[in-house]
Amino acid sequence: MLIVVSAFSPDSLRPIKTLTGKLIVPLQKGVNNIGEYIDDKLQVFGDIRELKKENEELKQQISEYQKELNQNQAELTELTELRRLYDLDALYPDYNKTAARVFSVSGSKWFNEFYIDKGLNDNVYENCNVLCDNGLLGIVTESYADYAKVRAIIDDHSYITGEIGVNGTICTVEGSLSTMENGYILGVDIDKNANISQGDRVITSNVSDRYLYGITIGYVIDITNDSNNLTKTAKIAPSVDFSEVKDVFVILDRKQEISH
To answer: What is the pTM of this model?
Structure first.
């Protein structure tokens, strides 16, 4: 009806158009505003979903990078250990050796007694000398088919006949976990007239019954005269870090075999 009336008498519908415009235009604007608001929110939600997806992808990439980094660090540590063993091997080229890894340690904070993953099947026998870092770590005390027990030179039951300095002054190197708390072990029964000084290298003596000759034990850091006025005692800083031991060299040659 409105269409027919507007066709023959357009002016008659002007009031209705005006009223309709006043009612519909604000409503339309409101609807448009609501539509725009909803569209903005939907866009935000879409962005959030996209960001979550990107976040998950980034987390996955970070996890993969972290795994790769950990692997590279492990390989670098392994390479460092191999280089250390290579350098150690070069220090004592005259002895036959095999590399071994520590797999169990006693309850002490120090590596004074521990187990390695080589044994009789690898020609590792009792009294085989064990090397680490730049010198003597200890000696094999028990050997089984595929593992062996090692006693370090810092152990309270360890005694080694050593030589100090260029003159080869004889001493007995005693292991001591208590003195290791201060970073040294003791060289005792040193002749009071012996010409030794701080910084002298201490090595295994040729007269030792179980230790091969010439392996570095450590370095003299202090010397004191004993109360008996006949001998003196030296504090010796070991050449091995006994707070952490991972890879070692076992010398397959034994003292009694070489002496015979």
So the answer is: 0.68
